[in-house]
Amino acid sequence: MTTLYVLDVPENTPLAKVAGEDPEVTVGRVGPYFEISAAGPIVIDRRATGCRHAVWYSAVGGVARDSHITQHDKDALRVEPA
Asked: According to the lineage, what is the superkingdom (predicted)?
């Protein structure tokens, strides 16, 4: 299972919303974080979120032990199972 944690603040809500548009991805909450998870990779397009660069690069709160970030640039955030 691939899991990404993003702090649940208004600036990050579009990121969780775009991630949740993928039918393979589920978005829930754990404490003060959005928990974004999928059986396979999670890919979020920055432009689709409307996030500015500063918000985009600071959005990741963490990943689960069995996941790792393989792309986090101006275009997309990609998290894959380890």
From this structure: Bacteria
